[in-house]
Design brief:
By secondary structure, the protein is of the alpha+beta class. Helix content is 22%, strand content 49%.
Length: 178
């Protein structure tokens, strides 16, 4: 094979691998109901042993999910209709052996829970179900949209390796039918 052919094959494999990683890492389900786009998310690969160690050290750890609602535009750059930021923050108190988990949407506190159960903490940090994210008033009927989510973690510390340093990306498509 010629050098250009090998380069094309390598790029195709790289792109398909990145798409596979994103598809396996974040599962997103958009649902249109009651005048809003509801978003459910599960980030199965985000709670690694290093993340657990960072949390148990007492270090405040925050997962940030940047959620965008985008309109598919044929033969052009897709348009962002709306965006929102969901953060899930956990802090472990070594004295009481309890976790405090707080979820905010666009800076507004939605819920705070205190628990001793690490599995519950994992669930609160890595999943959300049916969050009311965007109003449907800005959507055009019978158009294709998608929800794109980029997940990142803070703090970025050399001691605790976060495998997705620039964030991991996932998306899910839907057609808006009023």
């Amino acid at each position: 094979m010629k050098r250009g052919s090998w380069l094309g094959v390598w790029c195709a494999l790289l792109i398909s691998g990145a798409t596979l990683l994103a598809a396996e890492g974040i599962q997103i389900v958009p649902l249109v109901r009651d005048g809003a786009v509801l978003v459910s998310l599960e980030f199965a690969d985000g709670f690694t042993d290093d993340v657990g160690a960072a949390i148990h050290s007492g270090l405040q750890t925050t997962f940030t999910y940047n959620v965008e609602l985008r309109l598919e535009v044929p033969a052009w750059i897709d348009r962002t209709v709306a965006s929102s930021t969901v953060t899930s923050t956990v802090e472990f108190d070594n004295l009481t052996r309890r976790y405090t988990v707080m979820r905010t949407i666009n800076g507004r506190v939605e819920e705070t829970q205190v628990t001793e159960d690490q599995a519950r903490v994992r669930q609160l940090l890595m999943t959300f179900r049916g969050l009311r994210m965007f109003p449907t008033s800005e959507l055009e009927p019978n158009r294709d949209y998608y929800v794109r989510v980029r997940a990142t973690m803070r703090p970025h510390n050399a001691l605790f390796a976060w495998p997705f340093e620039r964030g991991i990306l996932g998306q899910a498509r839907f057609t808006f039918i009023p």
